[in-house]
Amino acid sequence: MSPYKLFQYIDKLSEVEGKEVILRGWVQNKTGKGKLQFIQLRDGTGVCQCVLFRDNVSEEVFADAKTLTQESSLEIKGTVRKEDRAIGGYEIDVTGLKIYQISKDYPITPKEHGDAFLIEHRHLWLRSSRQHAIMRVRAAVIKAIRDFFDGNGFKLMDSPILTPSACEGTSTLFETKYFDLGSAYLSQSGQLYAEASAMSLGKVYTFGPTFRAERSKTRKHLTEFWMVEPEMAFFDINDDMDLAEDLVEYIVQYCLKTCQKEFNLLERDTTKLEKVKRPFHRMSYSNAVDWLVENNIPLKKKVDGQEVDILPFPWGEDFGTVQEEALMEQFEKPCIIHRYPSEIKAFYMKRDPDNSDVVLAMDMLGPEKAGEIIGGSQREDNIDLLLERIEKHNLPLEDFQWYLDLRRFGSVPHSGFGLGIERVVKWISGAAHIREVIPFPRMIYRIVP
Amino acid sequence: MSPYKLFQYIDKLSEVEGKEVILRGWVQNKTGKGKLQFIQLRDGTGVCQCVLFRDNVSEEVFADAKTLTQESSLEIKGTVRKEDRAIGGYEIDVTGLKIYQISKDYPITPKEHGDAFLIEHRHLWLRSSRQHAIMRVRAAVIKAIRDFFDGNGFKLMDSPILTPSACEGTSTLFETKYFDLGSAYLSQSGQLYAEASAMSLGKVYTFGPTFRAERSKTRKHLTEFWMVEPEMAFFDINDDMDLAEDLVEYIVQYCLKTCQKEFNLLERDTTKLEKVKRPFHRMSYSNAVDWLVENNIPLKKKVDGQEVDILPFPWGEDFGTVQEEALMEQFEKPCIIHRYPSEIKAFYMKRDPDNSDVVLAMDMLGPEKAGEIIGGSQREDNIDLLLERIEKHNLPLEDFQWYLDLRRFGSVPHSGFGLGIERVVKWISGAAHIREVIPFPRMIYRIVP
Lengths: 449, 449
Fold this sequence. Notes:
- Two copies of one chain form a homodimer.
- Chain A is of the alpha+beta class.
- Helices cover 29% and strands 29% of the residues of chain A.
- Chain A is built from 13 helices and 19 strands.
- The first copy, chain A, has helices at 59-66, 115-120, 122-125, 129-151, 191-201, 237-258, 260-266, 270-274, 285-294, 321-328, 383-392, 401-408, 421-429; strands at 20-33, 36-42, 47-53, 73-82, 90-101, 155-156, 162-163, 175-177, 183-186, 203-211, 224-233, 281-284, 299-303, 306-310, 335-341, 351-352, 355-366, 371-378, 414-420.
- In chain A, strands 6, 10, 11, 12, 15, 16, 17, 18 and 19 form a nine-stranded mixed sheet that branches. Chain A has a five-stranded mixed barrel with strand order 1-2-3-5-4. Chain A has a three-stranded antiparallel sheet with strand order 7-9-8, with no helix packed on it.
- In chain A, a hairpin with a 2-residue loop joins strand 16 (351-352) and strand 17 (355-366).
- The two termini of chain A are 37 Å apart.
- Chains A and B meet through strand 1, helix 4, strand 6, strand 7 and strand 8 of A and strand 1, helix 4, strand 6, strand 7 and strand 8 of B.
């Protein structure tokens, strides 16, 4: 056994009941009176109450313990005792103690702090129980996704981050100088590359950070966020929607299995998550518009700087938060909206053979105001139609030659989608703001720490 | 069962022996004479020989098959027959065939192509068997790494890519404008953030793309590459080295278990990989220098533009490829070199308490000219010593305030390392050049496709 396994982690205490162990961590809280002191020790895997009884330790140890402050670091030696009333079900009867450092004036006290203060101290805020729990849900969501794809014959094929051309305009792109080759741009999506990969390996996924230099100041926007994008040769839009449902069901059920402790701490109502089972709801864009019209949900539009309501909601306009939340209020499970107007969707989406006004696109909206968690489509596989769209969108043809090669040499029907990790973690964890669901959030007004 | 499971993948043919199946894929090669045609079909999971016998199919199908060219896309219907001489152990007796597209003038023919041509056509080159195999080894390496950490109590904590300051100078950094906040830089390492995460969650790892705007034109350098960086509270340098050995052993053994087909295709000598078992070799930097001196290995240094050999190798100089390869010739397993001169290592590394001329750093060198696959250290946990180093390195103190907080509030001994994915995949797969081990390589002279 390697020496790095010599000390014990709090989440494994059940395996060493009655034994003497060494724990290492930080003081979350400390109380005591008279002959007793109680240290709430956190070590990253959990929190454990450690009890010092004056008659059991040396005077020096008891005095040392009195000096401990919030976030002081230390090693504790003691015996593991089952205690049903304790946080993790176990307590430590302390026999020894070694202090690494007494922490002075730790900025984040148990009192309430403002959002701005917390985000400025993100490197310390991460130590709070609530942030712990959210980070663990995040790790579980990512593990579920990777297990799902790895277990279903998908190959990981990472798309590049540095890309040579501003395919759809530079306005929302981060730009950097690339040696003597001009500018490079940070990827907004790995999709086009994933399509090339799918023509090689059949079923692939790319999973990495993506970037949008958008001036959006909402609870749902980050400038740097993580996205998983599966892409599948020979999948049509229906296969694509089935896969999206399978994936989301798997993620939610995996989290329910592995994150109960975290959900308890976050006071997340898990009965709502338990309902996330296939089949989900599905609705065409046109049917969704009919519903909006019937229910008097307006389009919100800026006219001369003023927001006005337009009724009835006009077919052809994109949905915003107002429409999405109205539509989703009736559902407890996610709903896929499919077949959107061609005009509001990307150039690479395939026209519906039954109605060329719409494309074979699909967005999955989550319940509980989760918003759009997935966006995908069947891709245009006909080179002539694709060329027509590139021209219509005024895109630089030369930059797309390699992409067009995928339609020249063995073009096949294929589909894919992107799932935004932070949107999903926000939904599943119940976090109030997206800045809480990524370790170090990047927003238009925030790049430190 | 979802409709997207309706067709069969070649790697699952053993499960449907004797049954009629539908395969979808691309023509890798085609031969035939008289009443027989042989289609080598690839579908991303493998290659399968499909046999058309004129008497078994319609005249139309037989004629269609004759038109098939390399990389044409099609669907094949047929019966699965065990055939030990066939590539994957099975053949298909074709009964039907549907062509998606006849591919014309596919640029990459079975003849030899130059490196420049292949890399320019990377989106198509990925379809070759050799590139397939390397990409599968890459996916296996990454899965092994994630399984290892997830299975050993580590939490994934992604460090940010966009970072606010050029901590160690801007010369090798990609820079981008960040809204109204000035410049941001693409991360060269997630370590400093991982340290903050480790103070929260104990054992963490960050795994993402990292960027170096270096003008290095070697077989081992990319400007965009992936790195996994574990960081562990309460680990000292010895624990760190143990963990690094455990990890690398696990990766290699996992690949041996899951990538035999790929190693065969790549003609990789796996007996060499089988020897990669703990314990690895270890050697202090000073002992390594002694060995270089004894064996007359010179320092190569540019003097007035001319490369000269300096003998004996002077203590205090960093090792380059010449020294690394000379040292490693004697070993069949990786070797960790530890305790490097402070002067040539980063500011955050902890001085050796027994000898302040060296730091508790460690680099793992791979056998078979793999070069440095891991670099790590125990981190300086004393704030005064860290401040002294920051000053000595002329680093902007203000930018490090959040990092110094980790030493102000409950500082603990901690260690970590970074493992370069592409270096490891190159070594394990036996690929000749690092550009082959990432789907879309980025080098100083290459950002397309």
